[in-house]
């Protein structure tokens, strides 16, 4: 009930994922066991790819509101397990991805569905089945839904002559609606390009533009991924509509963007793979084409899943609302009992969410906190604030634990415009109140360049299309178990001002001035899709309460004063009661009116019982409105596309006879809806009254009445206990359907209205139907005092307080108060001992040395180190550090920090781990003509500002900006020189500071690999930092190495320090070895890196001698191998939330960084060395020089080739 309610007459079914598979464990060091929560889990791709990419034990909890999504995933898993080897992978592919099946595949699907339907008759029969140890269900309701879907798959009995029935009708409807949406004028949609597949093609990217568009249209035309026109066509073939792509929900239609290509990594179809690459996937090397590469990847995933399914993999399934599920897990985590949560399974049903007691009871072993939470693109549907309030408290307090969000909907002109809109306020400030840190924002780094790529494509398509952004959220370091800081202090008025700003932005659609500006800017999405209501805001306050150290009641009193006196919102006062009751029931704050039981008025109607006769009436009660079926014909008797999915609410208002001055109205948007039949137990108008609604799952397509329930203050109902009006209506928003509703309902948009005295349609009870308590939002389970003693020495306690800029409502500085508790330190401080403050290895840590003893202080977000001021109170025995927060994270030196945490385990904060780097596809760098995409990809490292800065070095900039630019240029040189795309090929690179000691780090490059999970490349190297102590031992070998040619990459002092800071992360990410107990990182006073000074050690020696597999082309390396260690170097892309993304119009990378390769032997559009049918490339008929694999590629490349074609043709003619 914390998200907006909608009349969902029409929904889209998403059986196939729309983003490439990710490795869910890439944030975890190899020693960590994975506890993963997938919300909006979608298809099986992420599970299969993670199981393939990482051998550690995986415990994955999967949640999707569609039981049919889970059913098809489990059916696929069972098919994989039942296949003795890979011979069935092709059949499984067809069953899972094709719209239409041949009879053999259809029969296999039917057989498997019947098998699973029988095994799922009860929880006991499933647990005792062959799949019960691998796959479990979080509750009986999920099992029942999945059981129902498997039965649904077997409904149609097609004959041999034709495909008919429900599935065929549903499939034809989906295809028709897709065509109507994309081609409303009945024109040939071949004129428009579908660019969504390019995300799967990265890093190759644009080379796949033509083919991904062709494959998408082919899939919707023929219903299969077959590229052979005869095999693909259903004409002349008996094909059957695939029930796996049909939802049992009659209101759900297959999404118009469904495309199997979107979930895979199709760059392997375009990039030149080395012959030795992926021996476990030989099919990928032999079969040409995108579809073949997808099927080969699917086969590899399936084989890996089959091999490791038993023993190292646990899958848990839940069908229901992700927000509700998360809050129930919150309750289990905080209280030990999930049954105290009192949530509903979905927003459209009255079924309570009751998790299985064996797994989620007090003695249950199912996880209720997680070190990986992936939420797909749910923020597009429920809002980022609602999602993070629900999921944030479930994230474990560990430096590696990560929560991922994605957005696909274009909600702003650019990603940078999202910074202060994503969380309805200043991103760093609001995320800190939620106990989270946006990692990419603070480091200005991104693992891939999807955002940059799509910015260019968006410009090509004139602002249409999606806008993809993936964000990683982590715990602030101060919230980790080993840290002395937990809660953040605020001034009460400042905190109230921050929260009031959030309130204003959450509900800006109620502000007439914002409505007008939003219409001008084209942000109608905000107006037609309200994601929040006052209960959402109250839930946010509940979580914030557990994160701050303030006089909370005072802060809330100030906040409510601001809200009550707000004159911007026309309807603000009408929602005030809803805000107050949810602040009350969620334990946020109670106004005086709700602290005591209401005092009923005498019953003026004599014997008739009404609200005034309710003894000990609670301050808040539930109103349930029964909406007759005939009132719903407005929705059900018209085209669902016209009706849309309008947001709904309920109202309680004064009787019709009330005078203008005495008229009143309160609006309640936090409503729960459900269809079914109602029964009542207990006495009406008493605390014993309980309402029971038996759910009719047919919903809008059934014949049951609609029940709508909401919480109301008793005092409001007692104003007119019989004559007050109760209504169910549509929230007024700017949408295409608004005119439709106002014509039929009038301006008040009420669908049904009655009075409190209408006992047939109005039911009032203590709790909502089918519930025995009030909905819980528990927030964080680990909240404690505002200070926490140092775990190791009990020498001091620390508390951090934030200062807020009054004009912007943003945190401007932090003050860390160190209260010295050890007597020896107190005495030393009073005696005048020196106190020194030194920055740590990141911009969040400082070390305060008192009397020779180091005290570590960690701030919750990065700060400006140079701004640190130290205050010393020697008599009072405390020290304070005051630091400013950065106004622009792009100016921070933070890139890839590595921290020590959790049992002295070095952990990379934001560099993706590569658990099985040897399985990443290696590229054949000798095929230069097929690597020209690499320059485009790596050049995406440079933001628009960095490109301007390189072109104009005199442009005003900071040292940090110039250092980061130089670092990226060095990376570009590494990739270009290793592949030979720029200058002479090299395998040995020296980072050379000519004015500061010469070569300081040697890199021996072994291979260039595709990082499929992040759609980028990675250079597999052996790294050898040169130290003063090491040089005498290897001097002779270094002299020999010069004969092989060392490519000198010039760096200055600042860039060399950055390389030293980043190198530990490059090493940690591909680590297959364990750190020794005597690891140098763990020594007293040490950090990561060990030092950034010339000639000093950078890395620990734990991994020395462990190098990339295979033979290097440098024999002399064996003499220094024991001092080198494997590292994985990838491009450093900017964060699109921070930096100005290159959109194709800004200054390109200058020519001194790149020498354009000459035209090679491949297709000039996509670099293929053969035509799509396997034959030789076709030559341009005019110049007889350019070659293409297809007419489509030739057309796509025509503009680029036209001028050169004329030159070549003229030259050929003169010859």
Automatic annotation (TrEMBL):
GO-annotated cellular components: nucleus
InterPro entries linked to this entry: DUF4470, TF_DEAF-1, Znf_MYND
PROSITE patterns, A to Z: ZF_MYND_1, ZF_MYND_2
Span of domain MYND-type: 1163-1205
Gene Ontology terms, MF aspect: DNA-binding transcription factor activity, RNA polymerase II-specific; zinc ion binding
Keywords (A to Z) from UniProt: Metal-binding, Zinc, Zinc-finger
Presence of keyword Transport: no
Protein name from the UniProt record: MYND-type domain-containing protein
Organism: Podospora appendiculata
């Amino acid at each position: 009930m914390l998200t907006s309610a909608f009349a969902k007459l029409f929904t889209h079914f998403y059986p196939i994922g729309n983003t490439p598979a990710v490795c869910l464990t890439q944030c975890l060091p190899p020693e960590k066991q994975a506890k993963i929560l997938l919300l909006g889990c979608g298809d099986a791709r992420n599970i299969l790819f993670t199981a393939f990419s990482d051998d550690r034990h995986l415990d994955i909890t999967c949640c999707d509101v569609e039981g049919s999504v889970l059913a098809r995933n489990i059916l696929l898993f069972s098919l994989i397990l039942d296949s003795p080897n890979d011979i069935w992978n092709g059949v499984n592919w067809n069953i899972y991805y094709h719209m239409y099946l041949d009879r053999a595949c259809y029969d296999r699907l039917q057989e498997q569905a019947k098998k699973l339907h029988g095994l799922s008759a009860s929880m006991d029969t499933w647990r005792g089945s062959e799949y019960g140890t691998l796959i479990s269900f979080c509750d009986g309701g999920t099992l029942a839904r999945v059981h129902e879907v498997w039965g649904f798959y077997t409904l149609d009995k097609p004959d041999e002559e034709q495909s008919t029935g429900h599935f065929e009708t549903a499939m034809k409807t989906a295809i028709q609606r897709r065509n109507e949406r994309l081609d409303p004028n009945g024109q040939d949609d071949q004129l428009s390009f579908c660019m969504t597949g390019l995300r799967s093609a990265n890093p190759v990217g644009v080379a796949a533009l033509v083919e991904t568009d062709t494959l998408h249209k082919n899939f919707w035309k023929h219903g299969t991924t077959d590229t052979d026109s005869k095999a693909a066509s259903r004409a002349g073939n008996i094909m059957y509509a695939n029930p796996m792509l049909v939802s049992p929900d009659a209101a759900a239609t297959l999404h118009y963007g469904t495309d199997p290509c979107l979930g895979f990594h199709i760059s392997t179809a375009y990039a030149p793979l080395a012959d030795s690459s992926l021996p476990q996937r030989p099919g990928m090397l032999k079969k040409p084409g995108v579809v073949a590469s997808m099927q080969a990847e699917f086969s590899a995933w399936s084989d890996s899943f089959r091999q490791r399914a038993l023993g190292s993999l646990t899958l848990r399934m839940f069908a229901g609302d992700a927000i509700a599920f998360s809050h129930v897990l919150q309750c289990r985590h905080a209280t030990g009992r999930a049954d105290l949560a009192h949530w509903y399974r979905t927003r459209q049903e009255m079924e309570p969410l009751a998790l299985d007691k064996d797994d989620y009871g007090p003695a249950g072993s199912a996880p209720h906190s997680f070190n990986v939470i992936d939420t797909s693109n749910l923020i597009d549907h429920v809002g980022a604030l609602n999602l993070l309030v629900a999921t944030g408290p479930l994230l474990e307090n560990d430096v590696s634990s990560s929560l991922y969000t994605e957005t696909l909907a274009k909600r702003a002109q650019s990603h940078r415009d999202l910074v202060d809109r994503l969380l309805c306020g200043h991103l760093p400030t609001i995320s800190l109140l939620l106990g989270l840190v946006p990692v990419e924002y603070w480091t200005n780094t991104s693992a891939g360049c999807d955002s940059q790529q799509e910015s260019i494509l968006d410009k090509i398509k004139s602002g249409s299309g999606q806008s993809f952004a993936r964000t990683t959220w982590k715990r602030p370091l101060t919230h980790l178990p080993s840290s002395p800081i937990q809660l953040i202090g605020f001034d009460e008025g400042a905190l109230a001002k921050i929260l009031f700003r959030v309130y204003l932005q959450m509900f800006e659609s109620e502000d007439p001035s914002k409505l007008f500006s939003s219409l001008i800017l084209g942000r109608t999405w905000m107006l037609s899709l309200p994601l929040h209501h006052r209960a959402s805001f109250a839930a946010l306050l509940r979580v914030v309460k557990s994160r701050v150290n303030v006089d909370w009641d005072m802060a809330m009193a100030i906040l409510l004063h601001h809200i009550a006196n707000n004159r911007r919102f026309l309807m603000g006062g009408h929602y005030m009661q809803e805000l107050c009751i949810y602040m009350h029931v969620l334990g946020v704050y109670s106004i005086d009116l709700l602290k005591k039981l209401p005092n009923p008025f005498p019953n003026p109607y004599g014997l008739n019982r009404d609200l005034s006769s309710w003894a000990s009436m609670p301050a808040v009660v539930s109103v349930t409105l029964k909406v007759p079926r005939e009132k719903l014909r407005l929705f059900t008797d018209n085209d669902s596309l016209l009706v849309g999915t309008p947001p709904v609410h309920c109202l309680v208002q004064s009787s019709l006879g009330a005078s203008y001055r005495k008229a009143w109205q309160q609006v309640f948007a936090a409503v729960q809806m459900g269809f079914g039949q109602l029964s009542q137990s207990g006495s009406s108008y008493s605390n014993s009254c309980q309402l029971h609604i038996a759910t009719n799952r047919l919903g809008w397509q059934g014949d049951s009445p609609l029940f709508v329930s909401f919480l109301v203050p008793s005092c409001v109902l007692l104003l007119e206990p019989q004559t007050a009006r109760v209504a169910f209506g549509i929230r007024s928003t700017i949408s295409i359907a608004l005119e439709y509703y106002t014509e039929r309902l009038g301006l008040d948009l009420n669908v049904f209205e009655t009075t409190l005295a209408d006992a047939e349609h109005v039911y009032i009870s203590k709790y909502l139907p089918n519930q025995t308590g009030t909905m819980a939002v528990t927030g964080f389970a680990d909240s404690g005092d505002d200070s926490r003693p140092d775990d190791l020495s009990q020498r001091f306690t620390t508390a951090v307080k934030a200062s807020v800029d009054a004009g912007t409502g943003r945190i401007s500085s932090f003050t860390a108060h160190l209260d010295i508790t050890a007597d020896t330190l107190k005495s030393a401080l009073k005696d005048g001992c020196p106190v020194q403050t030194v920055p740590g290895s990141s911009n969040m840590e400082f070390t305060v040395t008192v009397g020779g003893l180091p005290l570590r202080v960690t701030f919750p977000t990065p700060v400006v180190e140079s701004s640190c001021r130290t205050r010393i109170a020697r008599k009072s025995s405390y020290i304070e550090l005051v630091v400013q927060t950065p106004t622009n994270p792009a100016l921070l030196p933070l890139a890839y920090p590595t921290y020590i945490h959790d049992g002295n385990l070095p952990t990379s904060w934001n560099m993706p781990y590569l658990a099985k780097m040897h399985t990443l596809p290696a590229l054949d760098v000798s095929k230069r003509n097929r690597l020209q995409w690499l320059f485009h990809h790596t050049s995406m490292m440079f933001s628009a500002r960095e490109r301007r800065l390189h072109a104009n070095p005199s442009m005003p900039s900071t040292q940090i900006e110039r250092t980061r630019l130089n670092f990226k240029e060095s990376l570009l040189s590494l990739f270009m020189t290793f592949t030979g795309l720029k200058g002479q090929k090299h395998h040995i690179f020296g980072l050379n500071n000519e004015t500061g000691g010469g070569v300081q780090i040697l890199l021996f490059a072994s291979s260039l690999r595709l990082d499929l999970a992040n759609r980028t490349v990675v250079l597999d190297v052996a790294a050898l930092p040169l130290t003063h102590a090491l040089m005498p031992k290897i001097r002779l070998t270094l002299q020999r190495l010069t004969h092989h040619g060392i490519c000198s990459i010039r760096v200055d002092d600042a860039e060399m320090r950055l390389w030293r800071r980043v190198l530990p992360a490059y090493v940690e990410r591909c680590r297959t070895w364990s750190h020794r107990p005597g690891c140098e990182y763990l020594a007293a006073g040490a950090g990561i890196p060990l030092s950034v000074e010339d000639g000093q050690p950078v890395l620990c020696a734990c991994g020395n001698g462990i190098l990339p597999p295979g033979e290097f082309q440098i024999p002399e390396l064996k003499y220094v191998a024991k001092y080198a260690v494997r590292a994985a170097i990838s491009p450093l892309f900017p964060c699109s939330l921070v930096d100005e993304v290159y959109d194709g119009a800004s200054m390109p990378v200058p020519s001194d960084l790149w020498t354009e390769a000459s035209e090679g032997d491949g297709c000039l559009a996509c670099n293929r060395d053969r035509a799509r049918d396997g034959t030789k490339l076709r030559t341009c008929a005019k110049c007889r020089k350019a070659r293409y694999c297809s007419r489509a590629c030739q057309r796509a490349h025509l503009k680029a080739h036209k001028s050169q074609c004329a030159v070549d043709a003229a030259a050929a003619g003169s010859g």
